[in-house]
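pipeline stage [seq->struct] | target=TIGR02466 family protein | organism=Pseudaquabacterium rugosum | residues=217
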Amino acid sequence: MPVPVGAGAPAMVVHGLFPVPVARVPGVLPPGLVAALVAHFSAQAVQPNSSSPNLSHTAMLRPQDSPLYVEVAGLLTRHLAPFGALMFGETLGWSLKEMWVNVLDAGGRQAMHNHANSFISGVLYLTPTHPDSCTVFMKSPGGTDFIFRNEHAATHTGAYHSDKWVSPLPQPGDLLLFPSYLMHAVPPNAGERRITLAFNAIPTHLDSWGYRVSFAG
């Protein structure tokens, strides 16, 4: 990315090193399946969230429990291999490790967290999302930033020094994929009930010059 320096001076070329992939796939689920999932899960998210009384979750879902889950799993899995190739440099086999549904009512929020024991995580949006309640990604606490900061009314927030990134406003049926280690949260919901299906995925194996670790799922 060329950056102008001044009259007569050569342009500075900036390289963004080690980017973290976050993918948005629009319209992964057809409207009929989205509506069926909303109707199915609206009354099943009965597990309370420990940090927000207006957020609840379902139990972990297994594809064999419902034909709806089997259809969703098939539509999700086809997007895992190309995204995983960005992370590991190889097209591997992938499987869904777990799925669950989040129901976020007005005023509820999802605290900052990441997902353990998985490599790809994702969110399927099943209902409209208020613009103020999009999924937010943030740098991990205690990262590699300088101790001193330069933050005041005249500074311009950019990709190289911002702490947060707000994902684009999703539509029902859209999919968001990200590495499981990436910290993320949902601000207080300023709109109607927000229902999402979240999941974690694992590859068949990882191979580091002959040291091969396989994952069962």
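stage status: PASS
auto-comment: The two ends are 42 Å apart (CA to CA). The longest helix spans residues 31-41.
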